[in-house]
Amino acid sequence: MIIHRLKKDHQKPDHEKPVRFFKALGHSTRLEILAALLKGKKCVGDINKLIDVHQPNISQHLAILKVAGIVCSKQKGKKVCYSLTDRTLIKRLFNSLLSQRSHQC
After folding, report:
1. pTM here?
2. Please, what CATH class does the domain formed by 16-101 belong to?
3. Which of 92, 70, 93 is nearest to 82 (CA)?
4. 25: closest CA among 89, 82, 79?
5. DSSP 25
6. 44 alpha-carbon distance from chain centroid
7. DSSP state of 97
8. pLDDT at residue 4, rounded to an integer
9. 15-52: string of b/e by CB count within 10 Å (b at 16+)?
10. How far apart are CA 105 and CA 97, in angstroms?
11. Residue 38 and residue 58: Cα distance in Å, rounded?
């Protein structure tokens, strides 16, 4: 019976990836970062100029977005630049959320 339960648990679909994705979207600073990255690849310093948040905090938020698979990074000398892994998905998500605001019950 225990072996049967373990096999059953093993067959459950992996929900961790979508959970990480949506948790990563659950902070206003990360949404501001994504909005900046929708305009193109940016280094941390560039994002820092656009968003009124300290650079170490921006880096922490970018790390969360990276673990969630939403952004990817590239080292350029001493700078780290970030871009969206799926710009179309994030753009559609933002557009959907903005249109939902105007259609509230």
Report:
1. 0.79
2. mainly alpha
3. 70
4. 89
5. T
6. 15
7. H
8. 44
9. eeeeebeeebbeeeebbbbbebbeeeebbbebbbeebe
10. 14
11. 16
Tokens of 59: 């880096």
Distance CA 87, CA 37 (A): 8
Listed residue (30, 10, 29) closest to 20, CA to CA: 30
**pLDDT tens digits, residue range 6-44?**
445 455 557 788 888 999 999 999 999 999 999 999 999
- What the block records as the tokens of 16 is 């961790």
Domain boundaries, the chain: 16-101
Beta strands 42-43 and 79-84, pairing class: antiparallel
Tokens 């019976």 locate to 1
pLDDT in the model for residue 92:
94
Backbone φ, ψ for residue 86 (5° rounding): -145, 85
Location of structure tokens 């459950």: 12
Taken in order 7, 10, 13, 19, the sign of the CA dihedral is positive
CB 85 within 8 A of CB 72: yes
